[in-house]
Specification:
This protein is α/β, with parallel strands linked by helices. It folds into 3 domains: 210 residues, 3-Layer(bba) Sandwich (FAD/NAD(P)-binding domain), CATH 3.50.50; 112 residues, FAD/NAD(P)-binding domain (3-Layer(bba) Sandwich); 113 residues, 2-Layer Sandwich (Enolase-like, domain 1). The strands form 5 sheets. Strands 1, 2, 3, 4, 5, 6 and 17 form a 7-stranded mixed sheet that branches. The protein has a 5-stranded parallel sheet with strand order 8-15-9-10-11. The radius of gyration is 23 Å and the shape is globular. Bound molecules: 1,4-dihydronicotinamide adenine dinucleotide. The site of 1,4-dihydronicotinamide adenine dinucleotide has 26 residues, from helix 6, strand 12 and strand 18.
């Protein structure tokens, strides 16, 4: 038995970042992880592997569609799926080993096994019970199940199985037009699969700005994805190699069946708290099955904290990281803080989608007076040179004060471009502040400046 200042349960982006920050603040810290490798869902079966496949499939798309126009001749590459999976595994390994190195460097003990909390101040891992003045739960989330749909991770898969398919399917049905469905759906569409996305709502990516939703769906349609909107999936019937997906159209209640080689279920995730012993401890939960915490990430049990996907808020790696750092600071007697109003969201398709702050729909609902500055990537020289003119930057600013309230980008490197707006928002900047900042030419970032200019006297290149 060992004794620690802090034991963190889970080594995903929330847990490992929290562990490192605790160590940096002089605390004796251990992190419990039951997987063979560190990094949680994000590094092992989520963000990182999916980005490897998104990158590889985008390269193929470029070769097939744009190389000839640039004077790059020759046969387009064909897909060596085994090698692509091996590239993906190498990427995962480099990242998970990186965390192991950081743990050693910062003297964070890795307690290998699945942890539970028999009582406050104690964490059980395997047969050993360790003492901890503070326990931070960072056990993440798992795919939510859908009634009538049985996942076998071969034919009917979650994102985990979708990253390990035996081959590129001919026909893929994706249930849910959220982030996972569209990222992985577009990977397989680019690799040659016929992809049909079935979505309950009338629009894709719930919660995003309406104008972005429409343009994004149109862009994906142009890339070959088929959408069935306003449709509730009722069930799947799978054999070892194929599946039938039954759905009902909400507008007329009619039932339809579609065939698939692989069905990806991407209808949301739920907090993963199984086996922690929370019931026995009397940890308070929200109605949605999340661990209830206060503004310092404390649960109702003294000395037990929770961060990341197990608590409320968007299930995003970077939100968990921020909470991890802030909770570590709280435990160390400092004043960790997270600005939940400035958390970017990114969809890593091509083009990418990124957003921060309020949507136009939210501002309308609040009855707030606002102005919109928009700029199309068609007017951006760099984007045109790179065959990346699809999409736009949209900045929403307060009509009176010009303070930036939100931003929405569909376009090249949107996930990187969004951050200058995040920084501006952190500093309470106005659209004019952004517009007056010199931006290097020729860069995609100029489109952000132009959108800021469009909030005032007007964009130059439009
Ligand atoms: P999601 O919540 O983003 O989307 C699920 C979609 O499924 C919704 O549009 C919903 O209307 C639809 N749906 C639900 N039941 C249905 C049914 N019976 N028939 C048809 N459609 C149905 O969930 P997703 O994509 O599974 O992602 C889970 C979580 O992981 C999200 O919180 C997401 O933010 C996070 N994530 C974030 C990524 C990123 O930041 N790039 C990447 C991957 C996941």
């Amino acid at each position: 038995m060992a004794s620690y200042d802090v034991i963190i349960i889970g080594s995903g982006p929330g847990g490992y970042v929290c562990a490192i920050r605790c160590a940096q603040l002089g605390l004796k810290v251990a992190c419990v992880e039951g997987r063979d490798t560190l990094g949680g869902t994000c590094l092992n079966v989520g963000c990182i592997p999916s980005k490897a496949l998104l990158h590889a499939s985008h390269m193929l798309h470029e070769a097939e569609h744009n190389f000839a126009a640039m004077g790059l001749k020759g046969k387009s590459p064909s897909v060596d799926w085994k090698q692509m999976l091996s590239y993906k595994s190498t990427t995962i390994e480099q990242n998970t080993k990186g965390i192991e190195f950081l743990f050693k460097k910062n003297k964070v003990d890795w307690l290998k096994g699945w942890g539970s909390i028999p009582e406050a101040g104690k964490v059980k891992v395997g047969d050993e019970v360790h003492e901890a003045k503070n326990i931070i739960i960072a056990s993440g989330s798992e795919p939510a199940s859908l009634p009538g749909v049985e996942v076998d991770e071969k034919v009917v898969v979650t994102s985990t199985g979708a990253l390990e398919l035996g081959k590129v399917p001919k026909k893929m049905v994706v249930i849910g037009a959220g982030v996972i469905g569209l990222e992985l759906g577009s990977v397989y569409a680019r690799l040659g699969a016929e992809v049909t996305v079935i979505e309950f709502l009338k629009f894709v990516t719930p919660g995003m700005d309406g104008e972005i939703q429409k343009t994004f769906q149109r862009t994906l349609k142009k890339q070959g994805l088929t959408f069935v909107m306003g449709a509730a999936v009722q069930k799947t019937d799978a054999t070892k190699t194929k599946a039938k997906v039954t759905y009902k159209l909400l507008k007329d209640d009619s039932e339809h069946v579609v065939d698939a080689d692989v069905v990806l279920v991407a209808t949301g995730r739920k907090p993963f708290t199984e086996g922690l012993g929370l019931d026995g401890l009397g940890v308070e939960m929200t109605k949605r099955g999340q661990i209830a915490v206060n503004a310092k990430w404390e649960t109702n049990i003294p000395g037990i904290y929770a961060i990341g996907d197990v608590i409320e808020g968007p299930m995003l790696a970077h939100k968990a990281e921020d909470e991890g750092m802030a909770a570590a600071e709280q435990v160390a007697g400092k004043h960790g803080h997270v600005n939940y109003g400035v958390i970017p969201g990114v969809i890593y398709t091509h083009p990418e989608v990124a957003n921060v702050g309020a949507t136009e729909e939210m501002l309308k609902e609040e009855g707030r007076a606002y102005k919109v500055g928009k700029f199309s990537f068609m007017g951006n020289g760099r984007a045109k040179a790179n065959f990346a003119g699809d999409g736009f930057v949209k900045i929403l600013a307060d009509k009176e004060t010009d303070r930036i309230l939100g931003a929405h980008i569909l376009g090249p490197a949107a996930g990187d471009l969004i951050h200058e707006i995040c920084v501006a928002m952190e500093f309470g900047a106005s659209a004019e502040d952004l517009a007056m900042t010199c931006h290097a030419h020729p860069t995609y970032s100029e489109a952000v400046r132009e959108a800021a200019l469009a909030c005032g006297d007007g964009a130059i290149h439009m």
